[in-house]
Amino acid sequence: MSIWSTLVGQRATVELLRSAASGHGMTHAWLFTGPPGSGRSNAAIAFAAALQCPDAGLGPDCPDRCHACHTVLAGSHADVTVIRTEKLSIGVDEVRELVRRASLSPMGDRWQVLVVEDADRLTEQACNALLKAIEEPNGRTVWMLCAPTVEDVLPTIRSRCRLVTLSTPTTEEVAGFLEARGIGASLATYAARASQGHIGRARALAFDEDVRTRRQEVVAIPARLTTLGRCMDAASRLAATTKEEADAITAELDAKEKSDLDAAYGVVERGRRPREYGPALAALEKGQRTRAKRRHLDVVDRGLTDLVSVYRDAIALATRAPGALVNEEIRDQVEQIAEQTSAELNLRRIGWIFAAREQMLEFNVPVALALESMMVALKAPQR
After folding, report:
1. Are 98 and 133 part of one and the same domain?
2. Are residues 126 and 175 part of one domain?
3. What are phi and psi of 291, to 5 degrees?
4. H helices present in 53-170, as ranges
5. Which of 41, 74, 99, 343 has the CA that lies 20 to 30 A from 230?
6. Do 299 and 275 fall into the same domain?
7. Is 218 inside a domain boundary?
8. Are residues 156 and 56 in the same domain?
9. What are phi and psi of 60, to 5 degrees?
């Protein structure tokens, strides 16, 4: 299987990166942009593998028996560093450590590669620290930044990067990707439609029945918003279920980090806590709370995207737009929404959902409060 196999529907991008890895158009800084799920970080890591590979990722043994490709894709290559955050932002201390690493020569005979996922989360101080490193690059260092759009990165940084733009893959391309991995045609098509081109989401929907069940519960919400009480109940349920899902994701990692900290300070073996343990534990717990908040917001955001898809389908039916519905399996509910309301109202509803998203992500409004306000706004008008 090729190192580029996870880049679904990105033929032009693959050709560009292959050419650069072979020495045509290579530069020291790259900016990968594209909508969520398009494969920004996958493209950066595949490119990193190609840069470390003696055959530029095109050899007959890549990546199965090629040591360089295999270790990069596995996350264990000594000269490839990937920074990804579970926090709300990437701070200056993390970037300074990257800058320090970037100043070193690679351990091997090729490149020192530094991949920054979610570069749009860099703080202002972190951006300033990164800018200096990109302006004065080490001759064998390559920076790869990933962000949704070029506007999410400071102009001074993006002007020094070569831009790689990924697009949203089609339903057919995503379905083919899933079928190639053993998923039946019907389920693959459903997952591809429901994911709206988000590869990671499509994988989860195809392989995890619980994920499919949670999505079905979310897309059923609009048809039930007929009274104020039902609106409040829907908001409460969505806030609670997303919190439970987020907690389940982070609980195992939290426990492992706590266990590792205890082992590092000898708490288990010695049966007592050194003086330095308290501050370290407080810092760990603070970071875990920040990560839990970020994870909850991510799960809620995914639910809001599913809600938007229902009103998008209602608009498509009302305007007789060509193409299949995202939520074909609940067409009867979508038709009911389209008949009871206008396309203009459903367009405003989508705006209200995005407003709630902004309240939570940008203005730190509590999830439950933002969802309650949103659900009341979405309530079906009285006939």
Report:
1. yes
2. no
3. -65, -40
4. 67-74, 92-102, 124-135, 155-158
5. 343
6. yes
7. no
8. yes
9. -65, -20
Q: Are 307 and 218 in contact (CB under 8 A)?
A: yes
C-alpha–C-alpha distance, residues 326 and 190, integer Å: 9
Kindly state whether residue 48 falls inside one of the protein's structural domains: yes
pLDDT in tens, 299-345: 999 999 999 999 999 999 999 999 889 999 999 999 999 999 999 99
pLDDT in tens, 52-74: 998 887 777 777 778 899 899 99
Secondary structure letter of residue 122 according to DSSP? B
The pLDDT value given to residue 26:
92
**Which CATH number is 83's domain given?**
3.40.50.300
Range of the domain at 179: 171-207
Residue 373, Cα to own-chain centre: how many angstroms? 26
153 inside domain: yes
Average pLDDT of every residue of the chain: 92
Enumerate the H helices of the chain as residue ranges.
11-21, 40-52, 67-74, 92-102, 124-135, 155-158, 171-179, 185-195, 199-207, 209-219, 221-224, 228-264, 267-270, 277-318, 331-340, 343-362, 367-378
The pLDDT value given to residue 8: 93
Same domain, 155 and 15: yes
Report, as ranges of residue numbers, the positions in the chain whose pLDDT lies below 70: 1, 269-271, 382-383
Q: Is 33 helix (H, G, I), strand (E, B) or coil?
A: strand
Give pLDDT, residue 225: 96
Q: Which residue has the tokens 């370290």?
A: 280
321 and 232 within one domain: yes
Count of domains for the chain: 3
Q: Tell me if 26 is assigned to some domain.
A: yes
Same domain for 373 and 320? yes
Q: What is the 3-state secondary structure (H, E, C) of 273-298?
A: CCCCHHHHHHHHHHHHHHHHHHHHHH
Angle at 233 between CA 229 and CA 234, to 5 degrees: 115
